[in-house]
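Lab channel / #folding
Pinned by the channel admin:
"Please post every new chain as: sequence first, then the structure tokens as a reply. Keep commentary short and put observations after the output so the thread stays searchable."

First post following the new format, from NK:
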Amino acid sequence: MGHFPGVVCPAMTSPAPSIERASADQAALRQRALRFSAIALAIGIVCISFSPVFVKQSEVGPTATAFYRMGFALPALTAWVLIESHGKVQERPTTKRDWWLLVLCGLLFTADLICWHASIRLTNVANATFLGNLGTLVVTVGAWAILRERITAGFAGGMAMALGGVALLMGATAAGHAGGLLGDGIGLLTAVFYGSYLLVVKIARERGLASGLIMLTSGAVSTAGFIIAAWVLGESIIPATMFGWWMLIGIALVTQALGQGLVTVSMRHLPGTVVAVSLLMNPVLSAVFAWGFLGETLSTFQAIGCAVVLAGIAVAQTLNKPGKRP
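Reply from TO:
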């Protein structure tokens, strides 16, 4: 069959080039999203790692500090939600399950911070932070059991190496810190609540709920819980100096609004196992910041422990192959 010059016959064209271009565009967008998520996760971890410094130097009680941490962050989180939700109705909660997930995030975060702030006050920063971050195990196991994310042998090996470094660091710091047993016990309880919180956030993000909305809703729920708990515990609530106020502003804006917010953003595209092992950098950095700002020194064994943790993270991230298990 002939055709007129300048007129393309539909039957003679092939959709293959356009399909290939569309696939290439989607792959490029996916790679950009992964790079952005990785950068957001890295910056978020650095910001979160400053938290023990703020808590240690706070002039109010540990639970009251948590109240200011969330209360001062709420305006920034509200602005984030207003910007993020513009034209994105699909990222708002539409079912009762969505709302319950948001409330559960708030309740778990409340329990997490109450325990962790108390642990920081009762033991050293390294112990409290490393014990609390064992919650990454909860995320990994939960992602495997609930989200059906695959755990490879390479990831398991890297995770085991990282946890070996955690144990070495914890053992070294515990040996020189008498009377911290209660703080260590509360730190372990922190791990349960922290890992559960991260897993629920991951589920909420995968259901399409906006990052800012998750942070704002959980923040509002936890703020109410913190002030009630601080009153019941009889803690001091008002800082005595301007320095005390700056510590509270810092933990709210740097740690909560920016740090936790960026970690939440990263969970949209990164597997829960990758986020979990990356968050093991948090206690390493916190130990370094405690040395730099609080004078809490690291022994040789502690330094070796930090190095082993970093090596384990590198191995796990390199050898893990994200995907769903059968």
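NK: The CA atoms of residues 100 and 301 lie 44 Å apart.
TO: also worth noting, Confidence is low (pLDDT under 50) at residues 3-8.
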